[in-house]
Design a protein that fits this description.
The structure holds two protein chains of two kinds.
Chain A (H helix, E strand, L loop, with lengths): L1 H23 L7 H9 L5 H35 L11 H16 L5 H22 L7 H25 L1 H11 L8 H20 L1 H8 L2 H6 L4 H23 L5 H13 L3 H25 L8 H20 L2
Chain B lengths: L2 H24 L7 H8 L5 H36 L11 H15 L8 H19 L7 H25 L2 H12 L7 H20 L1 H7 L3 H6 L4 H23 L5 H13 L3 H25 L8 H19 L5
Helix pairs in contact in B: 1-3, 1-13, 3-8, 3-11, 3-12, 3-13, 4-5, 4-6, 4-7, 4-11, 5-6, 5-11, 8-11, 12-13, 12-14, 13-14
The chains are: A mainly alpha, B mainly alpha.
């Protein structure tokens, strides 16, 4: 108990350190003292401007997106009782991406509330579709889930590509976003999405006890007097807010939501009351680090954070699959 | 299902293929009357139509025909091997591997000759399939593990493609996106001839192996008990499947859902005995791709919708419906 709590505090400190590093490091290095000055005594200098308008928003976005994806992945894995579930396997990321691209195609590129709702709706609908398809015919197995997910992902991705082919402007505007990047995210969009993401986090943490019970098996949870349907609906709502919000800001960031719950489970065991908060901190820290890495891996060129997480995460998926398909 | 029913279905499918082929020759920006189209098929056509028919429409329709047949047959074999109705060539990383190398060629090497693109794509497809076969090997091969591993490989390939797409010039990126979408636009005899031998060899090979596929479908233990060399047969069938899909993807890009739709429709028509299923799948696949290509040209001229978009838009809902209807416990 105490060890877990200490770990949680250590995780919090890790996130803070990563936040500070994310603000300070980059093409132009900013000493931490200057960062503090930029908020206390803003003097309009170039460094202060960088800190206030670029670095701090970017770090905050990475933190929130990472936490959201980590928690969403944990909730998905608990509810589906499937180690391969996650925002990308359940097609939530691509669902949000598709509806967002459609809404930008129809209503223009300025950030607006319509885009946020489109992303939330897309994430929810796609996840639900894959979940239902994967559990058809009694019980969700890894292979059913992954095939249903791959099929729906293929459909969504090709529809997105189809739309982008028709409009070169969309393609040019959206390709960075579709790679999962934190560079293009606007503060306006972030502030619009933030309440939903926070709501999703709060729901997930508040319901973590019930989610834990469901992860033991629906029959067990039902036998213990839990309203399983209600809590599953609540969990889906939380996932929708978390994934939709994350994708609206940063595009589909791959594999974070798949890998983070595994790391959290490795650290604290099978108890989702602890896995969920750990996943929030780990997700935030990992995405912050991936985003810092993206600035330095190729000299002179920034790659997107989504590529970094995918390069690290895809082999992890292969490893899981190798163990799973016994 | 009786033999007569199978023969009837095959005849109808072949007739439908011919009808769509004929329609493909007739319809377009420069319409060709039916009589002229028919005459030119037997070589008596009016020279005025000769160029349009012989150099533009016929090769394009033939590429669509072969690609469709190849993808559907490949899907049918894979579904038999994995005993899973959702397996498709795209899922085991074939499309991803082909796309990764093709995109690299288009985007990173501006001077890369377009004619060599299919070879790059084919090498990529083969490499991805071999990799997932090797990674899934654990005291014997398992097509099921191969599917799971393949999803991971496809995801890695996607990340790699994303990297190129985000870092390079928009024009070559657009070209790569069109290729990724899957289209038979501008395919000529230069695409028909390299593709033909693959199908001419692999389609009969697949049909000859159909009976052994039936045995494998019974499960490894029973198949071994019946005297089947399981590993060798499976490796051979997988190789046929990969080469068919690889050659098809190389010529027309990643046209989605044919490997799923073709076999499913065929199964509804002729049942699941392998020889009948495989032959009917091939004709279903070719029919779908030719029809999608025709539809893409005819819907909003002069705009061309890539065949891959049409097959995805039609295929996925159909697939969801099928899954829903065929749900059963177990």
């Amino acid at each position: 108990m105490n060890i877990r709590l200490t770990g949680l505090i250590a995780g919090g400190l890790l996130v803070l350190a990563a936040l500070a590093a994310s603000v300070a490091l980059g093409k132009s290095m900013v000493p931490l003292g200057t960062v503090v000055d930029a908020f206390i005594s803003f003097d309009g200098s170039r460094e202060h401007l960088i800190v206030r308008s670029v670095r701090v928003p970017r770090a905050l976005m990475a933190m929130m997106v990472g936490a959201s994806l980590g928690v969403a992945g944990s909730v998905m894995q608990a509810i589906s009782r499937n180690a391969l579930a996650g925002p990308e396997m359940l097609a939530g990321s691509n669902g949000a991406a598709l509806l967002l691209v459609v809404s930008m195609f129809l209503f223009g590129y300025t950030s607006s509330m319509i885009h946020v709702w489109a992303a939330l709706l897309g994430a929810g609908l796609a996840s639900l579709t894959v979940y239902v398809l994967g559990s058809l015919g009694g019980g969700m197995t890894a292979i059913k889930l992954i095939l249903a997910g791959a099929t729906i992902n293929l459909l969504l991705a090709s529809l997105v590509q189809g739309i982008l082919i028709f409009s070169e402007q969309s393609l040019d505007e959206m390709r960075y976003w579709l790679a999962g990047s934190l560079t293009g995210g606007s503060m306006g969009m972030f502030l619009r999405v933030l309440p939903y993401m926070l709501a999703g986090l709060v729901i997930a943490i508040m319901a973590s006890k019930q989610i834990n019970l469901i992860s033991l098996g629906e029959d067990v949870a039902q036998g213990l007097g839990l309203k399983v349907g209600l809590y599953k609906a609540g969990a889906l709502l939380a996932v929708m807010c978390l994934v939709g919000g994350a994708v609206a800001i940063a595009g589909p960031i791959g594999f974070l939501g798949l890998a983070v719950p595994h790391i959290a489970r490795f650290l604290v065991g099978l108890d989702y009351r602890w896995i969920i908060p750990y996943a929030a901190l780990l997700g935030a820290a990992l995405l912050l680090l991936a985003d810092i890495g993206a600035r330095f891996i190729l000299p002179g060129e920034e790659i997107s954070a989504g590529v970094v997480t995918a390069v690290l995460g895809a082999p992890f998926l292969i490893y899981l699959a190798q163990r799973k398909g016994g | 299902m009786s033999l007569r029913r199978w023969a009837l279905v095959m005849t109808v499918l072949a007739a439908a293929n011919l009808a769509v082929l004929l329609a493909g020759i007739m319809i377009g920006e420069f319409p060709v009357p039916m009589w002229e189209a028919l005459k030119s098929v037997v070589g008596l056509g009016d020279p005025a139509y000769r160029f349009v028919i012989h150099e533009l429409r016929v090769p394009r329709a033939l590429v669509a025909f072969m690609v469709g047949a190849g993808l559907a047959l490949s899907g049918a074999i894979l579904q038999g091997l994995t005993r899973n109705p959702l397996a498709a060539p795209g899922v085991i990383g074939i499309n991803g591997g082909a796309a990764a190398l093709a995109v690299t060629a288009i985007v990173a090497i501006p001077t890369f000759p377009v004619a060599a693109l299919p070879f790059a794509a084919f090498v990529g497809a083969l490499a991805a399939a071999l990799l997932s076969y090797a990674l899934a090997w654990r005291r014997g091969s398992s097509p099921m593990r191969m599917l799971l591993v393949g999803v991971g490989i496809a995801a890695s390939a996607n990340a790699y493609i994303t990297f190129w797409v985000t870092t390079r010039d928009i024009n070559s990126v657009k070209q790569a996106m069109v290729w990724l979408m899957g289209s038979t636009y501008g395919r000529t005899w230069d695409h028909v001839w390299p593709l033909l031998p693959w199908l001419a060899i692999l389609v009969p090979a697949a049909l000859i192996m159909a009976r052994r596929l039936d045995v494998l479908k019974l499960g490894d233990e029973l198949a071994i008990g019946l005297g089947s060399a399981v590993e060798r047969t499976r490796a051979l069938l997988l190789l046929i499947c990969v080469c068919l899909a690889g050659a098809s993807v190389a010529m027309a890009g990643t046209i989605g859902f044919i490997g799923l739709m073709g076999p499913h429709i065929a199964r509804q028509l002729v049942g699941s005995s392998s020889l009948r299923l495989l032959s009917a799948s091939a004709l279903c696949g070719s029919l779908i791709v030719m029809a999608a290509d025709l539809l893409g040209r005819a819907l909003w001229p002069p705009l061309e919708i890539p065949a891959g978009i049409i097959t995805s838009a039609l295929g996925a809902p159909y697939l969801i419906y099928l899954l829903y209807r065929n749900r059963r416990p177990g």
